[in-house]
Amino acid sequence: MLRYAAGDLEAFQRLYALHRGGLYRYFLRQTNRAVAEELFQDVWARLIQHRKRYRPDASFKTWLYTLAHNRLVDHWRREGRRAIDQSEPGEAGRDIEFADPDPGPQRRIDLRDCLEQLLQLVTALPDLQRQAFLLRHEAGMTLAQIAEAMNSGAETAKSRLRYAMDRLRSAIAKECLESET
Amino acid sequence: MSEHDDRLAELYKQSSQETPSAQVDRAVLDRARKSVHRKLYAPFGANWLVRGATVGVMVLGVLLVLTLPEQESYLDVPQDVPRPSSVDSDLKEERMEIEEPGIDAAPLKRKQPATQEAPRLDFHELLPGLEVEVPEEKARSRMQQAPLADEPASKSLAAPALPAAEKQAVSHYIQAGSFQNEQRAIDLRNRLTGLGYRASVAAVTLADGAVYYRVRVGPYQQEADAAAARQQLDTLGLETRPLPE
Predict the structure, then answer these.
(1) Would an 8 Å CB–CB cutoff place B205 in contact with chain A?
(2) Residue B62 has pLDDT above 60, yes or no
(3) Rounded distance, CA A144 to CA A157, Å?
(4) Interchain proximity B4–A37, CB inside 8 Å
(5) Confidence band, pLDDT 50/70/90 cuts, at residue A1
(6) By the CB < 8 Å criterion, does B2 face chain A?
(7) I want to staple A138 with a disulfide (CB 3.0 to 4.6 A). Which of A20, A22, B123, B216 is the partner?
(8) Most A CBs within 10 Å: which of B4, B13, B235, B243, as the mutation test of the A interface?
């Protein structure tokens, strides 16, 4: 990033290639395609605009996803809703059960079903849990980095991630968790 | 538990494969390229572009001035056919003949050489070696556009009735907001109604079972009206989008 800030375009291209997929999916899971494309481009535009302000003491990834998190929260605010922080599982909220308790003999759950179901479940997570999950599994961040990008304490980040995983695990069809499926 | 988490992580990795479109990639990389280039080459780069463009526009302008009057004067030259004195009605006549060949095609055939051949010769003399298609097409499009602008009624008569009817049947809506909280949707609707918009709330259930309350404004018969209203709503700070209906 420092090399890009100094005018090295190739350095930017490498950073972009490395992070384009993860960042795009980070937005895609939380919005729709049109909005995701818009926010995705906004974040890169801001990064380009403020490249001189990059501090080498923060990891580039953390910086990128901090911009992304702020942009998303800003988008939600303009849309008239606030990020839903549901820190306790089981509170009233979007509780969705996708798993059909008895799939029946004619319809066995296969891998494709599992993948589809998981994506839907991730989309349906409470906002901040979903963010923590995506920072972990799209951006590959550590808990400390997640906390920094979401501007929260380390403990909060940890519990958000844990609740997200608990939710996914309990809602997804049991067959999907067996490694042989 | 943790092995289940690993399994979930693995499943998620398999399911989550989307990437931004090539168009989006290009937009971002272009922007980055420009940011670097501006810094390095701004002293010449930007200026030369502007100067080049200005020269180009001036050359084009001179060409147009040289060629256009010639075209018009040729359209005005009276032919041996009996024809009305006004150019407009003359052009209209031609157009109708193009649409319905077979009806009195004779005048058209006699006039076409006059409008096409003559300017071509003339243009060659003026600017030898230049491409002739541009002025020729210009003459033709002028011929066809003039009557359309003057006589919209004749156009709608000549056009098939179907597209017009379809256009009327389409209603355009704008989404002014989408909420999970019904009351917020109702509040926004009331605000919009208070401002004189036709607004309503519709509940939609997404694929994941979540219910959203969409506030929509409309219907508008014309797309242009919907677009204008959307701009107004945007100035209110709402994040709108068109809703196909």
Answers:
(1) no
(2) yes
(3) 8
(4) no
(5) confident
(6) no
(7) A22
(8) B4
